[in-house]
Amino acid sequence: MIVFSVVCLVLLCIFYVIKALPILIIPIGIWFSAVYLGEHYVIDVLAGIAYSTLAFFLAEKLISLESKSSTPSPPILILTDNH
Questions:
Q1: What is the 3 state secondary structure string of 6-51?
Q2: What angle, 0 to 180 degrees and rounded to 10, lies between the N-to-C axes of helices 25-36 and 42-69?
Q3: Model confidence band, residue 6 (pLDDT cutoffs 50, 70, 90)
Q4: What is the distance between the alpha carbons of residues 57 and 27, in angstroms, rounded to a whole number?
Q5: Is the pLDDT of residue 83 over 60?
Q6: In whole angstroms, what is the distance from residue 66 CA to residue 29 CA?
Q7: What's residue 43's pLDDT?
Q8: 80 to each of 6, 7, 64, 75, how far by Cα in Å?
């Protein structure tokens, strides 16, 4: 749940910089409740935030590199025997 809230927050901040600030309440509430209810330590939450943010940007970088380096394949010629 912590990772999902971070990914949503990162996406919102990328596309809607100013409009995403009020939405920040939701992930902060999730992080606080995870620590307050004793499900996670603070270091767990911070590690989850760092891990998910790094994974998001790494995936974005790999996807952009893959789309730049891939060349379109030539069309396939299908030969049929019509008698």
A1: HHHHHHHHHHCCCCCCHHHHHHHHHHHHHHHCCCCCHHHHHHHHHH
A2: 140
A3: confident
A4: 19
A5: no
A6: 36
A7: 94
A8: 53, 50, 38, 16
Report the residue count for the chain. Answer: 83
Residue whose pair of structure tokens reads 């990328």 in the numeric block = 14
- Tokens 């008698």, residue? 83
Contact 41, 8 (CB under 8 A): no
The dihedrals phi and psi of 14, each to the nearest 5 degrees, come to: -70, -45
Question: Cβ distance 27 to 5 under 8 Å?
Answer: yes
Task: State pLDDT tens for residues 53-81.
Answer: 888 888 888 888 877 766 666 666 565 66
